Amino acid sequence: MFFFDPLYLLFALPALLLGLYAQIKVQSAMGRYSRVPAGTSGAQAARTLLDANTLYDVQIEESHGFLSDHYDPVKRVLRLSPQVARGNSVASVGVAAHEAGHALQHATGYWPLQIRTGMVPVVQFGSWLGPLIFLLGWLVSGFEPKLGTSLAWAGVLAFAGVAAFAIVTLPVELDASRRAKTMLQRYFMIDQRGMAGVNAVLDAAALTYVAAAVQAIFTLLYYVFLLSGFSRRRR
Fold it and tell me: 99 an active-site residue?
């Protein structure tokens, strides 16, 4: 029989509230600065920044979905959502410059990006299988305590990779935004008023990664707290 554990709210609620606040900030900043013209499209800005850093081999493609922008270090492709690639706004240029910042990280061997890229298979495994293994262990522990506890801890360990990935992502994203702001100013691609908009958009986006890290850490702590309490009761 399954029941809702009120204790979960203690761990989950702060991260959920922070995530909601971050999403509101992103939507507000994107909505506001998508109406401020920048004089160039996101795709054109990204191409200019890439070429200025001799990254001629990095291709730019359109992706599908709102804010689906990302850099693929394996294929060396910068993918921009249609709103960003075609958008002639401060918000579009800011997001495109951020993704160009990731390409520059890759080109310069920025080690946190290398670690994050290497962790992708672990995260794909742990994000869905970790909680399932934990739940299986929790159920099995009702009639096989030692086996169930071992399985549950294995699930916790698998999910720990997700939390580690979220933590490593923070410096990667913050550094990409820093590089974007520096490049936009260095190459005089945007004026002071526009830079205020870029700062607002990228700072709001950074907050979403903080929220994701907090959520992953708190979820991991909940699993550990739950399992530790169960183990003590079994002694």
Answer: yes
